[in-house]
Design brief:
five-stranded antiparallel β-sheet, mainly beta, two-stranded antiparallel sheet, about 10% helix
Length: about 100
């Protein structure tokens, strides 16, 4: 069973290195949802592969986007690349309100 191991609050940079898009029903076919990200959660998928999932949540705790990484260290490096989040800013356990 998947288990949350780390979390961190983040601010999306003015010029993000990575953008996330969702299908839209409006005149534009895709909506940029990058700015919705407010929190990162590292989830141990507890599989034999040792993979971790980086979940990007909005302020209300709803999932915005997720990616899979081969290790916790790779996940942290990816979060640092995307959000400038240094390793020491991660907090243990489950985020408040989750």
């Amino acid at each position: 069973m998947p288990k949350t191991v780390l979390w961190a609050g983040v601010h999306v940079p003015q010029y993000p290195r990575v953008r996330f898009f969702s299908k839209s029903t409006g005149p534009q076919r895709f909506e940029d949802i990058t700015a919705r990200v407010a929190r990162l959660v590292a989830v141990d998928l507890e599989e034999s592969s040792g993979a971790f999932e980086l979940q990007r949540l909005d302020a209300s705790g709803q999932l915005v986007w997720k990616t899979r990484h081969p290790s916790l260290q790779e996940l942290k490096w990816h979060a640092e690349f995307e959000y400038g989040l240094p390793e020491e800013k991660w907090l243990d356990g489950i985020p408040p309100g989750a």
